[in-house]
Design goal:
CATH superfamily of the largest domain: DHBP synthase
Function: Required for the formation of a threonylcarbamoyl group on adenosine at position 37 (t(6)A37) in tRNAs that read codons beginning with adenine.
Catalytic activity: L-threonine + hydrogencarbonate + ATP = L-threonylcarbamoyladenylate + diphosphate + H2O
Keywords: ATP-binding, Cytoplasm, Nucleotide-binding, Nucleotidyltransferase, Transferase, tRNA processing
Helix content: 25-40%
Subcellular location: Cytoplasm
CATH topology of the largest domain: DHBP synthase
GO molecular function, one term: ATP binding
CATH class of the largest domain: Alpha Beta
Bound molecules: threonylcarbamoyladenylate, magnesium ion
Radius of gyration: 19 Å
């Protein structure tokens, strides 16, 4: 790990050029996307990719998503069948990752793919991210820019709180507008499989495919996402889901206009969306979990959240935060 402080780059032409140059040199740069901040490295440079795991203290070599500036660049890395092409055209640039067979001559290293015959590709919706990717001129592997097991970062201070001194730079793009990670769909043999709910809802994807997405089944039946560990996004506090009554001293994560019983006994509460808007709730999810956790409660109680639209991704992240560790 290079010693010294992490540089904070501005979201302007010199900052973008510098981020691209650092990535080309094999350094680690955190970049804002519309979902969360990613910890970027040249996906074709195994030493740079290994640096991601070291900086995150990620215990295992999970495969990483390679980020590209456009569909043409993505087609050099992966083979797009009919379903993948349809989804890419409908949702890129945007919060969708497609797992497709590796293309011959693709540059994403075996390490970034964890030696799988498939590769995860994403063209981010953030214009700033695409500008950095174009400046880098290489596929950029980027998991979320947090230390392993921590809550994903949706602004620069979250990134620096976890990774200051461990990475060369962070590009400051302000808060991330979507707030939960990309939806991951595998388009390999057979019907497309939903590997992770995320920023594009299941219903939107199924409308484009004109059929239901398959669920990730038991190993062997369908591709599973090796990185989808049960406990993830873990705050220090225990997380209690579906709370309709607050217990004294709990921190509370609210959704919607209704106050649960006992709220006046809460240590602290934040509302993801007083109006009950799931997109607004997604934007606030990780930042509010961090803020409640920083107050040091034993438990964070979360009031019920609907499971449609972006609610599926929000509940997926909260279930991981609540999972036993
Ligand atoms: O929104 C996002 O997707 C963010 C931003 C930075 O782009 N990135 C992100 O990356 O969430 P990460 O590393 O936290 O999640 C990548 C997921 C992991 O669960 C991994 O197992 C899965 O993608 N994955 C990557 N390659 C795969 C493959 N070939 N087959 C199946 N799953 C794969
Ligand atoms: Mg992550």
């Amino acid at each position: 790990m290079p010693p010294g402080a992490t540089r904070r780059l501005a979201a302007d032409a010199p900052g973008i050029a510098e981020a691209g140059a650092l990535l080309r040199e094999g350094r680690l740069v955190a970049i804002p996307t519309e979902t969360v901040y990613g910890l970027g490295a040249d996906a074709g440079n195994p030493a740079a990719v290994a640096g991601i795991y070291a900086a995150k203290e990620r215990p295992r070599f999970n495969p990483l998503i390679a980020h590209l500036p456009d569909l043409a660049a993505a087609r050099r890395e992966g083979v797009f069948g009919e379903d993948a092409a349809r989804l890419a055209e409908a949702f890129w640039p945007g919060p969708l990752t497609l797992v497709v067979p590796v293309a011959e001559g693709g540059r994403v290293s075996d390490l970034a793919r964890a030696d799988l015959g498939s590769v995860a590709l994403r063209v981010p919706g953030s214009r700033l991210a695409r500008d950095v990717l174009a400046a880098a001129g290489c596929p950029v592997a980027a998991p979320s820019a947090n230390r392993s097991g921590r809550v994903s970062p949706t602004d620069v201070d979250h990134v620096l709180g976890d990774l200051d001194g461990r990475i060369a730079a962070v590009l400051d793009g302000g808060p991330c507008p979507v707030g939960v990670e990309s939806t991951i769909v595998a388009c390999l043999d057979g019907p497309p499989v939903l590997l992770r709910p995320g920023g594009v809802s299941r219903a939107e994807i199924e409308a484009v495919l004109a059929r239901p997405l398959a669920a990730a089944g038991p190993a062997g039946a369908a591709p599973v996402s090796p990185g989808l560990l049960a406990s993830h996004y873990a705050p220090r506090a225990a997380v209690r889901l579906g709370a309709t009554r607050v217990l004294p001293g709990e921190a509370v994560l609210l959704f919607g206009p209704d106050a649960p019983a006992g709220l006046d006994e809460a240590a602290l509460c934040l509302n993801l969306s007083p109006a009950g808007d799931l997109a607004e709730a997604a934007t606030h999810l990780f930042a509010y979990l961090r803020r409640l956790d920083a107050a040091g409660p034993a438990t964070i109680a979360v009031t019920p959240i609907p499971d449609h639209g972006l609610g599926e991704a929000i509940l997926d992240r909260l279930a991981r935060a609540a999972a036993p560790r």
